[in-house]
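Severity: low
Component: inverse-folding endpoint
Summary: output formatting inconsistent between runs
Steps to reproduce: submit the following structure tokens with default settings.
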């Protein structure tokens, strides 16, 4: 979708989104709009609560029709960039119903929120709210797609800042959509080899290097835990390593982003029920996030060094699959007791984070994974759970997430939780039981990062949505792409 900054409103506008605060305050007020809003409120048609909408149609000169969608911003004293993002996305959903190609959104000029933040919020809300995954659907003949948004009534002295902010917003929008598309692809299409190919294509487009390692190379690295998960599938694993070095003067300062890359997960011999398995194409949501993030980082030419690692494979059943009760090795040399073959993502991540620390010499490691159902029980679908061994690292992530409207929440990492992962027959077991499941899963991964500052993001609840929620559309969400980008940019 094309997004344009437009300093002035033009009389030929035929589709306009008009933001309104509760009480009826219209920004960039025109007398007719203000009067209409008061009538809508008086007769109970529109209350301007956050995300509420009302469509008004009027005739213009020469019989032309102008459509106006009024959208509520809620209480003026509660306005944030995230509330703008949500409101605009709700308005765009109404606009789409009108089968128009172009729409204008009035700029929201505020004292407490910068021009840059407002522009990003409008652009992200509009485009991400308009997202559809139609790769395998026949499009109805004659359907009109919304393909251009104009952000209008931007004061001339703010246009330069608005256009600069829009460039960054488009990077993040496109990278988020790229991640969504990866997650939404069916598992029979996005096998590990295909995920690797798409990472390679993203590297060529965005400007980062990509190295793809095959099974023999993975074996040579000693990544035994990763290979145990992968060996049940006819689709061979691919270790995807992406490198962007934008700070040549500080080559030793490297941030590693490690994404869980299970392109499908049956649970192995600890088999999932069908209802839990049907959306397991999304089990590579962490991989999608880190590929999307490094794409945005490279395109923006940030002054930073980033290595992204994805240990891609499938967890399926065959005569060669690993089993509950097995004791397996790992790249670190630690032996792992398998108590649950559905706790497979942490096994691939154990080798992947160790690789990042040992071979890529990462200064800090952030892993992103659709890891535990316990994360949904604890935090639902709106918030990403975080476990870390470094408080400063988490504080920086919190700031990055706040800047883009994503929600994260730190879970405790007390020594008592590590006790739950202890094994009587091996160095560690791969599941600590039902209690504190998100924490013990994260701490398992933390045992393989050596002494590196590390943070684990469990996006099991946020990387996929079963329902539409404002700019979060059904299916893959692209969660964590923007937070990771801002984390790297600001640090």
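Observed output (run 2 of 3):
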């Amino acid at each position: 979708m094309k997004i344009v900054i437009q300093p002035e409103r033009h009389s030929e506008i035929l589709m306009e989104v008009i933001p309104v605060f509760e009480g009826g305050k219209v920004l960039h007020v025109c007398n007719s709009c203000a009067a209409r809003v008061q009538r809508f409120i008086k007769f109970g048609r529109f209350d301007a609560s956050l995300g509420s909408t009302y469509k008004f149609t009027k005739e213009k000169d020469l019989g032309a029709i102008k459509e106006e969608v009024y959208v509520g911003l809620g209480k003026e004293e509660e306005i944030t960039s995230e509330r703008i993002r949500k409101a605009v996305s709700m308005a765009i959903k109404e606009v789409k119903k009108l089968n128009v190609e172009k729409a204008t959104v009035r700029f929201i000029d505020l004292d407490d929120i910068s021009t840059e933040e407002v522009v990003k919020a409008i652009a992200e809300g509009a485009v991400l709210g308009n997202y559809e995954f139609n790769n395998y659907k026949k499009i109805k003949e004659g359907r009109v797609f919304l393909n251009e948004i104009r952000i209008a009534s931007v004061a001339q002295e703010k246009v330069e800042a608005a256009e600069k902010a829009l460039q960054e917003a488009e990077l993040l929008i496109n990278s988020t959509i790229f991640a969504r598309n990866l997650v939404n692809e069916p598992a029979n299409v996005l096998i590990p080899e295909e995920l690797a190919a798409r990472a390679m294509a993203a590297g060529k487009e965005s400007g980062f290097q990509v190295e793809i390692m095959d099974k023999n190379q993975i074996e040579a690295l000693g990544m035994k835990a990763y290979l145990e998960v992968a060996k049940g599938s006819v689709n061979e694993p691919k270790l995807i390593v992406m490198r962007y070095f934008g700070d040549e003067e500080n080559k030793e300062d490297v941030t590693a982003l490690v994404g869980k890359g299970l392109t499908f997960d049956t649970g192995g011999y600890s088999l999932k029920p069908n209802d839990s398995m049907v959306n397991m194409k999304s089990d590579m949501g962490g991989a999608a996030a880190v590929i999307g993030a490094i794409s945005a980082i490279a395109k923006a030419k940030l002054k930073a060094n980033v290595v992204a690692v994805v240990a891609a494979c499938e967890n399926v059943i065959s005569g060669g699959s690993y089993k509950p009760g097995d004791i397996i090795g790992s790249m670190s040399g630690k032996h792992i007791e398998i108590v649950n073959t559905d706790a497979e993502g942490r096994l691939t991540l154990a080798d992947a984070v160790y690789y990042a620390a040992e071979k890529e010499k990462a200064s800090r490691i952030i892993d992103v994974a659709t890891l535990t159902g316990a994360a949904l029980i604890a935090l639902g679908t709106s918030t990403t759970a975080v476990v870390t061994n470094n408080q400063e690292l988490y504080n920086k992530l919190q700031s990055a997430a706040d800047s883009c409207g994503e929600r994260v929440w730190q879970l405790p990492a007390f020594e008592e939780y590590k006790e739950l992962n202890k094994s009587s027959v091996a160095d560690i077991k791969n599941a600590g039981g039902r209690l504190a499941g998100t924490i013990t899963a994260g701490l398992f991964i933390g045992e393989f990062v050596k002494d590196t500052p590390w943070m684990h993001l469990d996006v099991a609840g946020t990387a996929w949505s079963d329902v539409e929620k404002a700019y979060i559309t059904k299916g893959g969400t692209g969660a964590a792409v923007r937070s990771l980008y801002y984390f790297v940019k600001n640090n």
